[in-house]
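Provenance

Sequences were taken from public entries as deposited. Structures were produced by running a predictor on each sequence independently, with no templates supplied. The record for RNA polymerase sigma factor from Sphaerisporangium dianthi is shown for reference.
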Amino acid sequence: MPEQAADADDAADSPQRPAESVGPLVEAVFREERGRLLASLAGRFGDLDLAEEVASEAVEAALTHWPSHGVPARPGAWLLTTARRKAVDRLRRDQAYAARLAILQVEADRAGSAPPADAGEDLPDERLQLFFTCAHPALAAEDRGALTLRCLAGLSTPQVARAYLVPSATMAQRIVRAKKKIRQARIPFRVPTADELPERLPGVLQVIYSIFTEGYAASSGPDLQRLELAEEALRLARILRRLLPGQREVAGLLGLMLLIHARRQARTGPGGEPVLLDEQDRRRWDHAMIEEGRHLVVVALTGGPPGLYGVQAAIAALHDEAPDLASTDWPQIVALYDVLLTIAPSPVVALNRAAAVAMRDGAEAGLALLEELAGEPRLRGYPPFAAARADLLCRLGRLPEAAAAYRQALELAGTEPERARLRRRLAQVRASTPDDAPGT
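Predicted structure for RNA polymerase sigma factor:
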C-alpha cells in the first residue's frame, strides 16, 4: 500500500501499540490536526468535499495501518500524505476531475510549489486560508459560522446543528449550500493580500465572536450558557491569534472573549438560573484568564487607533478588575462606550451605554436615554432592552410600569433560565405594588 511505504522510516522509530490503544490516539490526532489537514487539502485541490472525504479515508487507513506498523513520529504529516495520495488517485480515476487535476498541476508548477509532502514533513499550517474562505462575504451570513465550526473547529454536522438549534438535515443543507457556493463562485483558498486584509478580517472576527456570543448567552433553549460552544470559539480565536500575531484586533477579540468567559462559573446558580453581575461571587471568576485578557487589551490598544474589539475588551477589563459593582469605574466605562459609538454606532451599543450612565448618574438619567432609544426597530424585539427598562423603572419605584416592562421582556426571552428570572422579578414587583396603584 502506498501509505504504508510512506512512513516506513517514521514507523521504524516508533513502538507498536496495541490495536485497542490506537483508536483514541487517531481520534486525538485528527481532532488536533483536522483544521490544518482540511486547509492544506482544500488549498491544493480546491474542493472542500473532496478534502473531507479523503481526510476521513486517511483516518481509516491509520486505524488499519498503525496497530501493525507502529504510530509514526509525525502522525499529522502521515495523515496529510495519505490523504493527498488518495485525492490524486480519486481524481485520476474520475474523468470529470481529470482536467481539474491537470490545471492544478500546471498552477502548482507555475507557483513553484513543492511536490506533495512525504511522511517526514511537518504538516503545513494553512488554516488561515480556510478562515477567510469560510467567512467569505459571498457566503450567506448564516452559513459562515456553520462552515467555520464544521471545517475549522472539527464539529460534525449534527454537532453544528445542535450549536444552532436546527435539525441536522437543515444544517447539512446549509453546509452543502456553502460548499457549492465556494465551488461555483470560485472563491479562492488564499489569505487576502495586505491591502485586502483590513476589509476581510472583520468578517472572520465577526464569525468567531458570533459563535462565542451564542455560547455565552444562548439565544434560545433550556440553558443560559453553552460553554462548549464558547470554548470552541476561544480555541478558534487562539488559532487565529497565532496565525496573525501582528493584528491588534485579533488580540482584542481574544482578550474580550477571555474577560467575559472568565465569569462563566459565577453567571449561573445551582439550578442554572442567571446570576447578574452585581450578585455574582467574584471569587469564582477565573483570575488567570482575566490576567491573560488584560494583557491582550494592552496589545490591542497599543500602536494605533482603537478598534471595535479592543475597546469592548477594555470595558470588560474594567468590570473584571473591580472588587464589586459599586467600585467599578463607571465614568471610564461610559467614556469607552462613547468611543465605541464613534467606531461602530448601533442601538445595542447605545443601550449598553445607557445602562452604564444609569450606574454613573442615576436611574433617571439612564431611563431617559432608554426612552430616546424606544423607537429603534432593532430594539423592539430585543429582550435585554425591555429587561433594562424594567430594572430602571423598578429602581425608580415606578412599579406598575416596571411590571409591564417585565411582562414584555418575559414574552421576548429566548431561554428558560432567563424566563424564570423574569417571572421571579415580575412576582416581586407585583407583591410590592399597592392594590390601588394605577395599572394594577
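Residues 2-125 form one domain.
The chain has 22 helices and no strands.
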